[in-house]
Amino acid sequence: MPPSDRWARSWLVLAIACAVVHAALLCHVAWRKSPTVDEVAHLPAGITYWQKRTFALYHHNPPLVKLLAALPVLAAGAEVDYSRSWARNVARGLPVSQWNFGWEFMERNAARYRLLYFVGRLVPIAFSCAGLLACALLVHKLFGPRAAAMAAALWCTAPNLLAHGALVTTDVPAATMAVIAVYVTLLWSERPHWWPTIVLGLVLGLAQLTKFTLLLLYPLLPLIAWAHIAGQRLPATVVRHAMTYLLAVVLSIVVINAGYFFEGTGKRLDQYRFLSALLTRPRATPPEPGQVPPDHPWAYIIEIRENRFRDSWLGRLPVPLPEHYVLGFDEQRLEAEGLPGPDGQRHGYYVYLFGQLRDRGWWYYYFVALAVKLPLGTLALLVLAAVTWRLSGRWSPARTVVLLAAGCFILVMSLATDINLGVRYVLPGLPFLLAIAAEAAEAGIRPVRWLVAACLLWNAGAVARIHPHHLAYFNELAGGPAHGHAILIDSNIDWGQDLYELAEWLKQHRPGQTVRLAYFGNVDPAILDELGLGFRYVLAPPRSPDDLTLLVVDRNSPLRQFLIRWSAAHGTELQQWLAANPGRTPLEMPALKAAVFGHLGVPEPASPGLYAVSVNFLRGLPFRLRDQQRNIWDFARHPDGRRGDPYSYLLGYRPVARIGYSIYVFELP
């Protein structure tokens, strides 16, 4: 049998084998890794969608992944308490905090928290495996069977897909839906009949229920269809393509509404309380007294801006989309624009690149991220593809298709947004980069085939060395995962995923020893006792007490009674300090903060002992953290506008361990 015939028969078997290996790797990651920052809110929110039939909680992202992940968790017997923050906020007409609700879910299910998240993570694992097979099908159609098998192998060994494919988040499911949508579009473009159109509409709608980034599919898919049939004389079908695509768009809107159970569909445009600059304008008149509760999370925006469509004919039109889909898009747009600050400027998340931390991004951020987060084998294949395309002297519609898809997602995120939080934001473009790299496998020159095999082996070796710590993967250009934090942080390396790993390390290497802990994540370390992984810890000492601010005192914390007693004993002193420091809170008073640190037993900075500090905190990224009494702290905002930098002083010490490369352990003599 000729080699080409063997590949024609075996490529699908090889792709399925890659999917099985990929699933096994992801299941191991799903068990080993603690819930990441966003997962703590995603999963409980999905449960409320089924139980309360409302999508109000965490509508920041579309609901499909959360809905599906909640089903096995509910089947496993997860318990939900709606009598606390949910009941309080609903009674007062306030939005429920997804973080408070997520922490309450954590407390309620502490003994089974790890198991519940494992079964919930099976859903994104299924998405990733489906994406692998869809990518292989797409590449088979565009380039051939060898390239299809190569694409499956590249997906199987992609550290970024292994990192996020086991998380209850939208990033890998969005990549999967993007590649499925492009594949279905190619089939529809060849036969724009009823059934392909219906399938396209269903897939397009499901994609919109996955991630707002996939709104880009609406303009992208017609371009891809045109590129695919370029060179064919099909003028008679242009009208049919246009009409059937419009039908697919209408069907996708129906799917979006069904995915939200038609909640709020048809609400008038002028009845929405928008937040983003795109959909609001400066208020002509201030809101009526009592119209905006002072503790509303967006009160400071609502008081100065109003719905742009108020008092216009557009505002009277009903919106043919679910209410929380529209509000979620508005919040995403606000995030992309940045939040309005007291200086009149808009400020986004704190982002980091090459040691610089600031509240606005870089247009080249994602190009740097891909250069250091993709394995060298994949980068080499992309360079090889560029060389062979240049030397071939010909161009094909297939290459146009994958370049359009990859370029659309990567360029739009780079040039049209200011969100530089991690390479995960451009994952919808990654399957098409893998497709470009995979075409090299179709080369008929033996040395090229050997080079392709070597690149694939390099990728497999990279996965074997880093597993299961794929989230912290950096290639050799960045110096590997031990040095990657000098280039990128946040969800590129430290997303709160290694709390379980830290507990296991302490149990094995420092049993019974108290650790000074500063953990970047939303999982409360106190629940580890219920999981059999508990260890003794206190809040890690900051460089200066002024670098931390106490945000929330837990209702069961002994600190609450201590603060009452201290305030009663030092009332006059406290009032004098507040009068001399307008705009400051009592908890920022140096004497009170020193008393709080003494009560909690926080040692002096750099005093002898065992420290465990997240990489993000070492690099100064602001976030909340918990002490041993479950009180919540944040990096302080100094009067001069600077943020506190409490833990960078530890960078001068050599760590005794790197837990998953995201938590550094120091033992100071």
Mean pLDDT, rounded to whole units? 91
Shape: globular
Terminal CA distance reads 69 Å
**Strand segment tally:** 14
Low-confidence stretches: none
The biggest beta sheet reads: 5 strands, mixed
Class from secondary-structure proportions: alpha+beta
Q: Report strand %.
A: 5-15%
- Rg estimate, integer Å: 26 Å
| Widest sheet, order of strands | 8-7-10-14-13
Question: Count of DSSP helices?
Answer: 24
- What percentage of residues falls in helices of 4 or more residues? 40-55%
> Oligomer, anyone?
single chain
Describe this structure in words.
The chain is an alpha+beta fold. Helices cover 50% and strands 7% of the residues. The chain contains 24 helices and 14 strands. The strands form five sheets. It has a five-stranded mixed β-sheet with strand order 8-7-10-14-13. Among the domains are: 124 residues, no CATH class; 171 residues, no CATH class. The model has no long low-confidence stretch (mean pLDDT 91). The termini are far apart.
Keywords:
24 helices; 669 residues; five-stranded mixed sheet
The gist of it:
The protein has 669 residues and is an alpha+beta fold. It is 50% helix and 7% strand.
Write the layout of secondary structure elements.
Layout lengths: L2 H30 L6 H14 L11 H12 L9 H8 L5 H11 L4 H30 L2 H12 L2 H6 L6 H20 L3 H15 L8 H12 L9 H22 L20 E3 L16 H4 L2 E3 L15 H15 L1 E2 L5 E2 L3 E3 L2 E3 L6 H9 L2 H17 L4 H19 L14 H9 L7 H21 L32 H11 L5 E4 L18 E3 L8 E5 L5 H12 L1 H10 L9 H11 L8 E6 H4 L6 E2 L5 E4 L21 E3 L3 E6 L1
Parallel strand pairs: 7-8, 7-10
Antiparallel strand pairs: 1-2, 3-4, 5-6, 9-12, 10-14, 11-12, 13-14
